[in-house]
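Researcher: Please translate sequence to structure tokens.
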Amino acid sequence: MVVQHDDEWGVQVGVEARTRITTASVRLPALVVVPAGTHPETLVEPPLIVIEILSTNDTFADTQRRARDYQQFGVPNIWLLDPDTRTARVCQGDTWTETTRLAVQGSATYLDVTALFARLDKYKPRP
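Model: Translation complete:
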């Protein structure tokens, strides 16, 4: 998974990094993956990966709008995690494809979705 291999893959993860899509527009993706040494506080260059986490208030139109913004900015990998359905999707153009392994083509970088949710379950408060 990305965080487990950040040194090996030469990347780092940023949380809610201000991502300047245009001179007048900023997005705050849930997570970004950037080359190691990048300061992910405010990104003016496209990150390697943008990961959005779906909330109950998100609509399909909202998700598509954000994905288009990231694509126009030049983000090559746009991933969506849905904690309610415990699924993940990768965006390619206007198409979202469900998968259990989100991967960056041509590199070793990936996110095993099943392992991610299993790991998060360890930290879930018990009733």
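Researcher: Any highlights?
Model: The chain has one domain: 3-122.
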